């Protein structure tokens, strides 16, 4: 006699197997019975969010810290469509997501009833499934009882391996269908393996050989290194080789920035003085997990000759001019690191590279007066503590914080490629949840080893502009509802500053409502006398006021939710934003001229 | 020498030609130069909204009052995808929308540069264009200078005629291209005409003949009557014929509900006592602008035999069993009304129909104690004034307000078919804008006629539940920013009541944050001392408190923005919601059994 498990519980047990403890979403009549099954899986908790776009952002933020896809549950049509922009962002930036969508029952679909959430008589009710096709790796509609379990497994495995969103569509009549429970005894296969081992060998051996021969090697680890779980390997490679290291705008924090070998953020022509020269003078650049978008390459101004370049990517590797399609960097990097760690000398390590460390210039020494873009970001950098998770919204915060120097283990969440404003407010909820799960795990481990020392907890710090905040503000209420205590910096600079920098600085379309009382925000959303939830809010109009707040022990301790509003002049932009725009404009003009 | 006009201005001049005075949207780097052109067209004003989904809702709400599509401008990828759910709703419910999307320049698209807002290297940059295909009538990508003007005209005309969303994609390099300005001298052709005049004749003559022969005729005007501009014709038909009239949940307000011939909301088995019997006993039902979705037909429980039925729809008409494909009701209805008005006697009018008026039962006579669902909706009905625009959110408000009796000219906005919660908060902004435009027009007319009488202004009243409010709350800040003074009722009943009624009344997934301080909302968003904008907030926990507020002259006067929070028990539902759920469940079980 085989024991059975409901389809819904099977799905969520597989989710729990990934180490996931929280699911984000919004209920709707086509997913309610599915949520009943979720509530029966004790490893998982439900986090209801205010709307589906925010939920997608939260799942994305969760994935970036957790290292496995976030799970989002939405309802048919209205829910799944609202989430689309958030899912697409997780696709573009390889955050990954398992998007579970409740839909009408199979017979109702077959009958094409004109239910609410459909659009016209006799409509094919799977029409929305088709709309999401470009923003996912794969999907399944669970209609066939015989293949449901294997389809769930296939789709989740694809999502974990690819770090791209996947969709599981659940007709509401199938959630209780009994599936063979014994299948759960065999774990999911989520390990990234290159099927062409000969090709993998060649990449590994050739790279090792180039390392051996090089005299001025560098490691440039980009964001997909982090997204695909290669951050620790990249750090081990840096430690073993003692090569100079560089990050990109999107991967900032991938290396220990306090390390003497760390040379800063390489972003083509939009880099700090000396940084591009240093990297570009290498005779070997190991470029891992690259994402070569406009804002991550200084507007396509990287200058690394192919003859000096090893690209180790998620869907191909390339050594000089030879391309290895389908080879994933992760197994490659692991073998390279292990080889080198075994025998440094064989690879000529350490190298006698005489390149000087690229020092980060100090942009401002302000101690009083107006808060400027040149002052604020490096100052916030100095406010950071080891293990902090920091989110910077698309716009001035994102470009600005690139100037800061991070403590050793800082994790940055920012969306420089997809660049959807409002993203960080949702993503911050996900980061808070993932960080809490990680801490719980640490505590479990430390209590089981009878250690009494507390592991350092991660502060979660959100920096968002006033315009972006207005996109997704309600989700701050979820931080409060679920007892999280992030530090929120709101940059109040009178509208969409990034748009002003790009075009129409004085035009009305770049304005927003300036009537919001940010000081009242936490109270409105739940942190106030009467609810028993403490919140603290600050307004800083000059450097003195900000220094007072940043220097305060209670503020830095992050014991309750806190909001610090920072006033910056409307037309003040970070230098990187202005430089990026200038370069992009020039490069695009060139591209268009070439085209014409 | 021909005079020219930039592509951008040409587009917006065509928009202005429809009588539109305001455009909704969010700026983004791919639409900024297009917005420059918009700002040069003095007939139009830009209304920046907090996010794109809210913007789509606003454009939808605007269209429902204005009678022409609302215009939404978004930016490439992040913006257009965020709006999808709102556009789909405008599709399902025939609100119409002209969605203008700024996108990368043509040469950049051609080069497939890996710009921000794309998703992967070498991506076809029109991929998002394909995603929106199911939620629009037609679209154009303005790449070819020779056809741009005619493409703009074609797409706008299709949008106006069909009342379905249309998309105009504008590569950023084309906004300044000079087009022939003389083309604007020929107005757009937006008139709905049936190309098959013979078929139209047959529908008109057959219907007139059935009217002549009938002894118990009825008019059942559904929501597409309103959406396609037939409300006044339907009212003229009712006046001329003196037939009993019926609306549906979605079309409530289509007729003068104070008229002695109005018999209420026909919704199959989910109707007030006597209503369905009255309608179903007709020997002729003129069913105009029908939309036969589950919640608009009492869960598919209409009982009107084909032999008594004339369907006058937007894409077909049907007389008994004979279907006339492609015949639009609007020209048909116009001819029928004009024929009848010319000669009542020829059609046996007035009829000696002895059917009694269906009286609306009074559900509650509460004058004290807790506020119940049975009390609140008819009470709000009595609060309404002629010309009010009222929006009811999907959920208890939407089902509940169906019980109210409206003054003569009330306009209702509700989304019973698409049913996306949060919709009304955005739609209310659109309704406010359209109402303001209408009043300005009236004032212009009255001042030009040297009349001194003020035309009655429309109050705009929003009723939204606490859960739905959390979806889209930020847009209330736009009401304040743009000096609107709606009356907002917030139903505080501890979560998603409509979901609780459907499934899992006590389950945690139907909970929301109960920590929001609704009394602080208007202040947070801008209406407070210090901004010079007055706002008033009330909390009503029992009937006495609510009666005091509703009876107050200042509250009813709507001179400033006001919010009235109404506390209702968590598990109290309107009878229509419970009945609808019971019937739908039964009917769907039957459908599934038939299927099996």
Multimerization status: homodimer
How many DSSP H or I helices of chain A?
23
Structural class of chain A: alpha/beta
**Whole-number tally of structural domains of chain A:** 3
- Uncertain regions spanning at least 5 consecutive residues of chain A: none
Through-space gap between termini of chain A: 71 Å
Helix content of chain A: 25-40%
| Strand adjacency order, main sheet of chain A | 11-10-9-12-13-14-15
Under the CATH scheme, the architecture of the largest domain in chain A is 3-Layer(aba) Sandwich
CATH superfamily of the largest domain in chain A: Thiamin diphosphate (ThDP)-binding fold, Pyr/PP domains
Query: Largest interface here, residues on each chain?
Result: A-B, 100 and 100 residues
Q: How many strand units of chain A?
A: 21
Strand content of chain A: 15-25%
**What overall form of chain A do the CA principal axes indicate?**
globular
CATH C-level class of the largest domain in chain A is Alpha Beta
As for the CATH topology of the largest domain in chain A, it is Rossmann fold
Largest sheet of chain A: 7 strands, mixed
Average pLDDT, all residues of chain A: 96
Q: Summed up, what is this model?
A:
Chains A, B: It catalyses: a 2-oxocarboxylate + H(+) = an aldehyde + CO2. Chains A, B: Keywords: Decarboxylase, Lyase, Magnesium, Metal-binding, Pyruvate, Thiamine pyrophosphate. The structure is a homodimer of 596-residue chains. Chain A has 596 residues and is α/β, with parallel strands linked by helices.
